[in-house]
User: What shape does this take?
Amino acid sequence: IAFIALWNVGEWLSRRSQIFATIGKLSLLIYLIHPLVFQFLIRIIPTLSNTNQIIYGMVILICTLVVTIIVSWIIDQILSKLFGKNAIKSSKTS
Assistant: This one.
């Protein structure tokens, strides 16, 4: 039931906001890049001994999402300029 509800909410939001369509287009790059970004951020954002671990985890999560989406968009723009707008889509069909 939860999966169907989330699926319907996702479809409803994607029709009303272009940002979800853009994130969906970048989903493969996001999937491939996020572990690298996460490991990088874990190493550069220090944890303090008296910091709440839940807050630290939320900061890392939000930073990972933001950085990953930005880097994925930049890579997509570079690939689009180098190989054309349909370079990634056409490679899936061959």
In short: DSSP finds five helices and no strands in the chain. The radius of gyration is 17 Å.
